[in-house]
C-alpha cells in the first residue's frame, strides 16, 4: 500500500531541477580579458600555465570561447589620422600581449576567473563585451 502521507518528490529537488534548467538556457555574459605583460620572455612554466588556463577556468564555472596572442610592440604599426608610425601608439612598460573572450556569470565571476591568468610582470584588464561575433566567408 502507498504511504499517502509522504510526498512523491520534495519541493527542494524540484526547485534545484528548475534552477539547473534555467541556468542551462541562460547564456553567460561575455568579457574581454586583455593581458598586459612587461616580460620580454615568458618562462616555460608560465607558457604551460597559459595552456592549462581554459581547463582551470572551466573548473570554476566559466568558459574561454576565443583567444589570441600578440607579438611584441616592435611589430606594431600605429595609424592616427593620416600619420602612420612604426611601433605602438603609446609607449608603456607593459605591452598588450593577448586577449581572450571569457564567459562568466557576472563581472565578479569574470574578475575571479581573470585573476587565474598567469602573468610575470604586468596584469589583466576585464571589460564586458557589447557583442562578439565570428564572421565567416560565405
UniProtKB/TrEMBL annotation:
> Pfam families annotated for this entry?
YCII
Outline the extent of the YCII-related domain.
Answer: 41-131
SUPFAM superfamilies recorded: Dimeric alpha+beta barrel
- Output the InterPro entries linked to this UniProt entry: Dimeric_a/b-barrel, YCII
Similarity remark? Belongs to the YciI family.
Question: Where are the bilayer-spanning segments?
Answer: none
Q: What is this protein called?
A: YCII-related domain-containing protein
